[in-house]
Write a structure and sequence with these properties.
By secondary structure, this protein is of the alpha/beta class. It contains 13 helices and 12 strands. The protein folds into 2 domains: about 200 residues, 3-Layer(aba) Sandwich (Rossmann fold); about 150 residues, Response regulator (Rossmann fold), CATH 3.40.50. Strand 3, helix 5 and strand 4 form a beta-alpha-beta unit. Helix 4 runs parallel beside helix 5, helix 8 packs across helix 9 and helix 9 packs parallel to helix 10. It is globular, with a radius of gyration of 21 Å.
């Protein structure tokens, strides 16, 4: 629309348009809004959009959000460069996907532009020495820590069997965030003395799910942890139903496992399943004080409840960054480094304190459980909105 207006009114195209652009902060967003990761990409983008709208409603220098649909790394690299060089975005947000995030970070670093990762958890995002990166969300390592705590402190009591009686299988998609989370879980569970009987990688949209389920059944697995996207989670439940078998506990890991769309696709079979994910809307009010108000704003904006806690996580991280009075590279980084917020300060219950790699050390996942079609936080106890069923 801006380009068509400039063509129709040539007198606006030079100094006046440049002055107008200089009077606003231009912010880019890189998410998969189509393709296999479209649901999580769009949900995170919605959270960012609400944070931008809130900041603009408060007055002051306006923020213009420029969204780009990116589904693979080469496209993300090109679009990040375009947003910075052509659209003059001085700040980028993303990405829900480790390959997309890595490409965006590469472009942002080369052009000395801040990049804020709102969701992707892969550990390697913060292990490459990026100087302009901030990640407001948890790392894969944090999922590993929580998984070990859940399987030693929570699940034995819930299942009525000791931790040493658990036989765990880790099923995960190859590459990216899913593999990073699975590797972190594997390491932490073994450190905690939990038996990891199997770790099976698979490709996206695998046709081997039925065979893997039969293998896990033969291995007497009683806890199945699956880190993958929505499509493969659906395939898992289909394979479990066809095998007429279900382990004592099914635990998903990652952003797709908290989606309402997954519940609609799987149906009642998803109830009682657990997931390691960002805090859902149904998290203890005393900690996630902004979850319900956010859900109300989301409902008014899009006419539907949030599809998962991902939009809330993206909103919380973006709101924090956009609260800075100066979004230029140097002042923004200095302002974020100086912040020291205790857990429970952000709307979803997180705090904020970044380390030397730009990682927020006070963003933690939770163990949620699907109850009557809703994801509900059940562990740790301070985050729990209900008892497990």
């Amino acid at each position: 629309m801006r380009r068509r207006l400039a063509l129709a009114l040539p007198f606006l195209a030079a100094p006046a348009l440049a002055q107008q652009q200089a009077a606003e902060w231009r912010v880019g967003a890189l998410f998969p809004l189509s393709g296999a990761a479209a649901l999580v990409g769009d949900e995170a983008a919605r959270g960012l959009e609400l944070a931008v709208e809130e900041r603009n409603a408060a007055g002051g220098r306006a923020i213009r959000l420029i969204r780009a649909d990116v589904t693979e790394p080469a496209q993300a690299l090109a679009e990040a460069r375009r947003l910075i060089q052509q659209e003059r975005a001085g700040l980028l947000f993303g990405s829900v996907s480790a390959p997309i995030g890595l490409a965006a970070i590469q472009a942002a670093e080369s052009l000395e532009t801040p990049f804020v990762e709102l969701a992707a958890a892969a550990d390697n995002l913060t292990e490459r020495g990026a100087r302009h990166l901030v990640r407001t969300a948890p790392r894969a390592a944090d999922y590993g820590i929580l998984g070990a705590e859940a399987l030693t402190r929570f699940l034995p009591g819930h299942l009525g069997r000791p931790a040493e009686a658990l036989r765990v299988a880790l099923l995960h998609e190859n590459g990216g965030t899913s593999e990073s989370i699975a590797l972190a879980l594997d390491a932490r569970l073994r450190e905690a003395g939990v038996m990891v009987a199997e770790r099976l990688p698979h490709g996206a949209r695998t046709s081997e799910m039925a065979a893997m389920v039969h293998r896990l059944r033969a291995a007497s697995v009683n806890v199945l942890i699956h880190a993958a996207n929505e499509g493969d989670a659906i395939s898992l439940f289909r394979a479990l139903a066809e095998a007429n078998w279900r382990p004592a506990a099914v635990i998903g890991a990652g952003l797709a496992w908290g989606l309402a769309d997954l519940a609609r696709a799987v149906g009642p079979a998803l109830d009682s399943a657990f997931a390691l994910d960002v805090p859902p809307i149904e998290t203890a009010d005393r900690v996630a004080h902004g979850a319900r108000p956010f859900a109300e704003v989301y409902q008014r904006r899009w006419g539907t409840p949030p599809r998962s806690g991902l939009s809330l996580a993206a909103y919380a991280g973006a709101q924090l960054v956009l609260s800075q009075p100066n979004l230029e590279r140097g002042p923004l980084r200095a302002g974020l480094v100086a912040m020291d917020l205790a857990e429970g300060s952000l709307p979803n219950g997180w705090g904020f304190r970044i380390d030397e790699r730009g990682q927020n050390t006070r963003a933690r996942p939770v163990l949620l459980q699907w109850q009557a079609g809703k994801p509900v936080a059940v562990f740790p106890a301070e985050m729990a909105a209900a008892a497990p069923v």
